[in-house]
Amino acid sequence: MDTPQPSMNFHTRKWVKPEDLNPNHSLFGGRLLQWIDEEAVIYAIVQLENPRVVTKYVSEINFINAPKQGDIIEIGIIATEFGRTSLTMRCEVRNMLTREPILHIAKLVFVNLGDDGKPAPHGKTAISYIKDRLQVKNITLAAASNNSDEQAS
User: Is 81's pLDDT higher than 80?
Assistant: First the structure.
């Protein structure tokens, strides 16, 4: 039985401006890949809770439709696999208003690095959300505060 995958969230939006266009007056593919790499590394940093991550691998890039000047696009990233030192993600880009697909990348792999710049285990096994981590930290802080109040009495 397949485990249900979490739905992809589209957090980043970009407005296609004249400086983003290629000679065909559509979005330059390199610009889109730059935006995707930046979004993916931010996602990896948040998931792995480490600012030291690097792009290891990007699979085939499937350009489906070409955005034009004035289009607003959305970039979606979702974790698909947690390795010992790596995080694998999938990416979809779509037109925000029409939901027309623009690009699909089946696999982006990022590697967690230690202070020495070498791959390091991250200890993560599933997607986590900052709001959940903050709730746990607040509960832990509140418990610690209550314990110190009780010890002071």
Answer: yes
Instruction: For residue 10, give every residue at least 6 positions away whose Cβ sits within 8 Å of its Cβ, in sequence order, or none.
Output: 74, 75, 76, 92, 94, 96
Asked if 105 and 91 touch (Cβ cutoff 8 Å), the reply is yes
- 94: tokens are 């779509």
- For the ranges 8-22, 58-72, 119-133, which has the lowest average pLDDT? 119-133
pTM of the model: 0.80
Chain centre to alpha carbon of residue 124: 15
Burial of 150 (0-12, 13-18, 19+ CB in 10 A): exposed
Helix (H, G, I), strand (E, B) or coil at 108: strand
Closest CA to 42 of 72, 14, 73, 75: 75
Residue 10, classed as helix, strand or coil, is strand
